[in-house]
Amino acid sequence: MGSTQKNVMAALTAALLWATAFVAPAAVKPASELLLVTGRYSLFGLCGLYVLIRSRKQLKLMPLRRILFGLYIGFVGYFVFYICVSYSATAGSGFITAVVVGASPITIALAGNFAEKRMSWSQLIAPVVLILAGINLLSVTDFVQGRSEDAGNSILGIALALGAMLTWSYFVVRNAQSQRTWETKPDPTIWAALVAMGAGGASMVLLPYAIASTPEETFSPYPLFKIITWCVFLGVIGSWWGTYIWVKAAQGIPVPLVGPLLATETIFGAILSLPVEQRTPTWTEIAGALCILAGISVYMVFDVRNVRSKEALSAPDESDADAVPATTRASR
């Protein structure tokens, strides 16, 4: 039990580190969103490059198509995803971005259900309806308050947040599918390094342009210190170490807890965004967030029930004197 508690605390720590990505775009102003993304993932990619150089013998044993797929999935799931998150957070709100991206368990479930049926489609109706209602409430916030000049930015922020949600869902589903279908599983550290290089490669190419297109005031001492600090924190601590902590912790976390623990990332992100934006959430934002959280909660309840039902069916026959009760364990 103590080991499980430690793993849960480690997973929450990783989620909190990841959540800082939602507040960074507003915190580094006047630096551009592109500079934050390219700076962060250039450092993330360098961490991956260091690991790949040290593990070059094992890397040579991997088929080229798998190496290319690892780079591709890193580019889409990290670089493109955070481009959407960064511009969404500054066009709309870090709070709204975090809440909308937090609905990704449902899009992952929908995509995963097409690939391999995890639950009945009828069980997904209530979560999907609640989340759609929540997104609609979040998107009309500025219309309800009569701020037409902010409405366009709010809609753009919602659209980019939806893009981030779909991009992340694609990354999770494609990555999981590839790992399950490959006969020889890649070393987790090498795979993480390939993903990091996929995000970092694109970032390094665009970094000179990001620097050139950044407002001059960014290079004053204090703004420059802020952007460098945030890039180092997000790239090395948030991305690399956060991922490492999560991978290690997830090995000792029961399967039903994985989903709720991942969901805490966006909850942390929404909470952290409000002080940075120096405001409190509106009532429509609160209602929208609660609808989305309710949708995720309903989905998690069904998911836990299904996992337990499958474990009960696969448990040893009770009539067997030597039967051992089935235990919930992390199998990912």
UniProtKB/TrEMBL annotation:
- The residues forming the signal peptide are 1-26
A Pfam short name? EamA
Q: Where is this region: Disordered?
A: 313-332
Transmembrane intervals: 36-55, 67-89, 95-112, 124-145, 151-171, 191-212, 224-247, 254-276, 282-302
Question: Could you tell me the keywords of this UniProt record?
Answer: Cell membrane, Membrane, Signal, Transmembrane, Transmembrane helix
Lineage top rank: taxon: Bacteria
Looking up InterPro entries in the UniProt record yields:
AA-Vitamin_Transporters, EamA_dom, EmrE-like
Which membrane topology term applies here?
Multi-pass membrane protein
Location of the EamA domain? 8-139, 156-298
What subcellular compartments does it reside in? Cell membrane
Family note? Belongs to the EamA transporter family.
Output this protein's name.
Answer: DMT family transporter
In its UniProt entry, the species of origin is given as Streptomyces albidocamelliae
